[in-house]
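To close the section, here is one more complete example, presented without commentary so you can practise reading it yourself. The ligand is FE2/S2 (inorganic) cluster.
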Amino acid sequence: MAVASGEIRRSGFAATERRDAWWLAPALQGGLLAVLIGYANWAAFQGNHYQVGGYLSPLYSPLIVVPWFPLSPAFLILLPPVLFRATCYYYRKAYYRSYFLDPPACAVGELRGTSYRGETAFPLILQNLHRYLFYITAAYLIFLWHDVFNATRFDGHFGFGIGTLVILANTTALTLYSFSCHSARHLIGGKLDCFSCSAANRTRHGLWQRASALNEHHMAFAWTSFITVCSADLYVRLVASGVIHDIRLL
Ligand code: FES
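Output:
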């Protein structure tokens, strides 16, 4: 970050001494996030073309079809994953900057007065529910890996298509996103005063080191997994509606 020496410091919204394109990252993040959220909402409302053969869209997994439910089946299962992402430490940083300009970037004046209470009061204190949402959405991974298995079944026989690859890539990305979560890292290695005092603690220390290594890449997993979720839905949707044909590799 370049600092202009000898200048009088400005204050107020967007005031900064930075000379780099600090606005570029929040603008790109905000734009990409809007596209992904927009697509996911559109797909969730469709209620059709979410399944073909052994392929199931991740936006509809686990699939629960209740005849009397007036909306698409996605609305029966999407709330925990949506809240999990909305309260994710990384996404919080991204949308606080891009959408609330709070602050727009490091060392840039923000859009508010002196009443900052952070996440200590309603409604933002609800962000602390993130760890519980991790516990709930971790269970979704079981269904998503079962979807990968189903994607290898073709008329009762093992097979592999482009769709299998797409669904496998998505479940892998979601697994990495979940287990690189700060709450996962805390669950694995938190609340320990001594890593070396017992065999169990040493095991947890080893697992915590692996979780920490994953955690360093959490931002990349956050973006990759959101893109793969939408891509997997789009692929299944296009095959199911007959726009494209799935190619069998095996
Ligand atoms: S911190 Fe991002 S998913 Fe938990």
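Once you have examined the tokens, check your reading against these statements. The chain has a mean pLDDT of 93. Residues 88-90, 130, 134, 181-183, 218 surround FE2/S2 (inorganic) cluster (CB under 6 Å).
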